[in-house]
Amino acid sequence: MMNxxxxxxxxxxxxxxxxxxxxxxxxxSVEIIRTMYSAGxxxxxxxxxxxxxxxxxxxxxxxxxxxxxxxxxxxxxIKTGLEAEAFVAAGADFILSPIVDTEVALVADxxxxxxxxxxxxxxxxxVAQQYKARLIKIFPANILGPAFISSIRELFPGQLFIPxxxxxxxxxxxxxxxxxxxxxxxxxxKLITRNxxxxxxxxxxxxxxxxxxxxxxxxx
Length: 220
Fold this sequence. Notes:
Blueprint: H1 4-15, E1 17-21, H2 26-38, E2 43-47, H3 53-67, E3 72-76, H4 81-89, E4 94-96, H5 102-110, E5 114-116, E6 118-119, H6 122-130, E7 135-138, H7 141-144, H8 146-152, E8 160-163, H9 171-180, E9 185-187, H10 194-199, H11 202-219
Parallel strand pairs: 1-2, 1-9, 2-3, 4-5, 6-7, 7-8
Helix pairs in contact: 2-3, 2-11, 4-5, 8-9, 9-11
Family: Belongs to the KHG/KDPG aldolase family.
Keywords: Carbohydrate metabolism, Lyase
GO molecular function, one term: lyase activity
């Protein structure tokens, strides 16, 4: 029987895409997740990028527990052990970082949470592997490009990579990432745009999410 860490990893790999966002308004944040859920999403990253992030995360988790109990919600942009502890207490199913941090890795290990650190160099990937990172975020993906993963994947056989930052909802772009060796792609501002958030464009988000999921499945 899979533990929670394995279930989250399996959900990300199966979905092939990890949507990520932050918004100041908790109700809008919930509605964004409801919309993506209705399009087929079962795992989402909420990012720690504003003073409302922790209180929003807590209220989102409360809503999901009753409405969408099979939705995994992780917290991203975690850079310290204290942040990790606070969001684990708020119910985070997994933890992502833009960096490799010892304290965050230890908190994740203590609570048996999937830890996805962000790496930009082979050295960082090596360090992340010392913390048993099953899945590593290649960040910022728009700077590194698919060729980076193609170039380093043979150095780290069996390592799972998820590029994040600048991945486009475009067949050629998504296919190129998967061809390079990615097992999934992180999709933030190209999917959940500021315009969608500010103008509550839920039907647009629904359609874009369907398209992104379809392109991912065709590319895997």
